[in-house]
């Protein structure tokens, strides 16, 4: 399992699932949100995963631009036919996510092990959203 580091992401593949851990606490400025989106797209292009897991455990603040980027990534991943999940949402990020209805588009889990289990189940032919 190789690990790659970018400005905003730490990434690795686990059983075909691209795990991206956001490494910055504040996704506040539009430029940072756009950079995050670009890094996610680059990782998707580089690895051609079966599923995407975005771990937001280190993120304390996620701006509306950040959520917009997140939803555009969810749309892209869905169009590719890949399941996507989020995990590790801190209270304020979880609140924003809930208000925007992000859970309608991606699975949301407490932590990485739970999200990986759900994605692996989905990939194995299990029912339900990742």
Question: How would you explain this protein's 3D organization?
Answer:
There is one protein chain. By secondary structure, the protein is an alpha/beta fold. The chain has one domain (3-113): Transcription Regulator spoIIAA, CATH 3.30.750.24. A hairpin with a 3-residue loop joins β1 and β2. The protein is globular, with a radius of gyration of 13 Å. The protein has helices spanning 30-47, 64-79, 91-100, 112-123; strands at residues 3-5, 9-14, 17-22, 26-27, 51-55, 61-62, 84-87, 107-109. Strands 1-2-3-5-7-8 form a six-stranded mixed beta sheet, with helices on both faces. A two-stranded parallel ribbon has the order 4-6. The protein is built from four helices and eight strands, in the order ββββαββαβαβα. α1 (30-47) packs parallel to α2. The model is unreliable at 1-6 (pLDDT under 50). 43% of the residues lie in helices and 24% in strands. The protein starts with a strand and ends in a 7-residue tail after the last helix.
Topology:
Layout (H helix, E strand, L loop, with lengths): L2 E3 L3 E6 L2 E6 L3 E2 L2 H18 L3 E5 L5 E2 L1 H16 L4 E4 L3 H10 L6 E3 L2 H12 L7
Parallel strand pairs: 3-5, 4-6, 5-7, 7-8
Antiparallel strand pairs: 1-2, 2-3
Short description:
This protein has helices spanning 30-47, 64-79, 91-100, 112-123, and strands at residues 3-5, 9-14, 17-22, 26-27, 51-55, 61-62, 84-87, 107-109. It has 130 residues and is of the alpha/beta class.
């Amino acid at each position: 399992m190789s690990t790659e580091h970018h400005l905003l992401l730490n990434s690795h593949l686990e059983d075909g699932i691209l795990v991206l851990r956001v490494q910055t606490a504040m996704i506040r400025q539009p430029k940072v949100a756009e950079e995050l989106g670009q890094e996610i797209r680059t990782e998707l292009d580089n690895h051609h995963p079966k599923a995407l897991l975005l771990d937001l455990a280190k993120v304390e603040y996620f701006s509306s631009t950040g959520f917009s980027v997140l939803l555009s990534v969810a749309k892209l991943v869905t169009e590719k036919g890949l399941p996507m999940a989020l995990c590790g949402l801190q209270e304020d990020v979880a609140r924003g996510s809930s208000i925007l209805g992000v859970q309608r588009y991606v699975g949301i889990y407490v932590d990485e092990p739970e999200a990986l289990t759900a994605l692996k189940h989905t990939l194995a032919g299990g029912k339900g959203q990742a």
